[in-house]
Amino acid sequence: MKVAGTSAPPETAPAASRPGLRELKKQRTRDLLLRSALELFTERGYEETTVDDIAEAADVSQRTFFRYFASKEEAAFFVSRLAESRFVEAVHARPPGEAPLDALRLALAESWDTIGEAVEQVVPLELHMRFYRVIESTPALLAAHLRRATELEEEIARVVAGREGLDIDRDPRPRVVVAVFGAVMRVTERIWSARDDAGLAALRDLTATYLDQVTPALTGDWRGPET
Amino acid sequence: MKVAGTSAPPETAPAASRPGLRELKKQRTRDLLLRSALELFTERGYEETTVDDIAEAADVSQRTFFRYFASKEEAAFFVSRLAESRFVEAVHARPPGEAPLDALRLALAESWDTIGEAVEQVVPLELHMRFYRVIESTPALLAAHLRRATELEEEIARVVAGREGLDIDRDPRPRVVVAVFGAVMRVTERIWSARDDAGLAALRDLTATYLDQVTPALTGDWRGPET
DNA sequence: AGGCTAATGACAGCCTCTGACAGTTGACAA
DNA sequence: TTGTCAACTGTCAGAGGCTGTCATTAGCCT
């Protein structure tokens, strides 16, 4: 189970953060709790899984679970949180010349891979994607998901306002564009989760397609189908 | 405590649905629970109010509360539900020629009064508006609010799809427009709830203003401020 | 008036989450 | 190596949301 060096040379690690046995154990317990939780959630359902079940599957007490995660819900969204932060970084990295909606669309397009990597470091990507469908079909989880999405949008709206040199408290447009972007994302997730093919690639393609349709859907004429 | 006539002439009531003493009592208990709940929520906070508190304020047992409302949350949103159904009716009543976004905007504009009336029949409108601010500042309530908004959007999207003669499962545009509309509504609510003037009139004006800015915010140039 | 049924209250119990206390184990210095 | 300190953990007790059960009450109907 040991991973670090033979005896105990803490100065060999880079100046970054130097794991330490205790830290390693903690991280392993956390990841184990996370995996146990997501597996149970996807197999038997979120509501049907008690915290005691998760704790037992990870061989810790219920009390310990709550020391790692403030709530059952927080455990459920821990991985999503990782993914989202990657997207935020990508938005930050966009060149300032682009129109806001374009910047968001392109940031998303180029962060899919980074997101996949981040997820894989904690739980199998496939498990995460399967759990995403559980979110959509579980009212309590969907509610939490939407609230978290709103918070994320607020954060991104500030970034957009900064890019455009606008005061977010005086000009509503940054929030409006981001809200529109988020709305399309949610519609996409919903449709994706109802499909048979619920892989990452399918979600990526759907998202790209729908984002391209925002402007025409709002302004253009509605004559003629366009699956 | 008695309210009805002296002895018992049930045939005096209109043919509509003939209340009956039992029905009346039920409705009064429900309204009392609703008022007690909203008052406690606004005075001391949602999380700080227990179901026992509400039941006690309405002089019923906790068990009875749960027979009227499936959850504390359901009680919190009961009045909002009334308001929303009025809006849906207004959308239905819009002439078929209008562009979807216009239909939504106009339906909203003309349903404010009806909404006010519907609310007043259960609790004071002012109490409802005050509670709306509690929703925005209480994570658990905000989450529930957003989930409910999503369900409402799905319903409206079907209406829009019907108006335009589109298959909602083959054309994403109805959902997209409605999602955009809903997104703007939520941004408006949020900004409104953070203001000092949180009356109904202020919300109505803010909504009208923001909805007019959707299209320019997405397509137009972003040069020049426009509070 | 008397029977029928809906509505209520009074437990008992499950689940999420928290505080308190004590036991265990890694980290670090003597 | 050993002892001390701090972090991590388990156990216990309890609050609050929510549900099932059962006896009692109260409206309704003949």
TrEMBL record, chains A, B:
Residues 50-69 bind DNA. Transmembrane segments: none annotated. Residues 1-19 have a biased composition (Low complexity). This is TetR family transcriptional regulator. Residues 27-87 form the HTH tetR-type domain. Signal peptide: none annotated. Residues 1-21 are annotated as: Disordered. The keyword Chloroplast does not apply. The keyword Metal-binding does not apply. Pfam families: TetR_C_14 (PF17754), TetR_N (PF00440). Keywords: DNA-binding, Transcription, Transcription regulation. It comes from Streptomyces hyderabadensis.
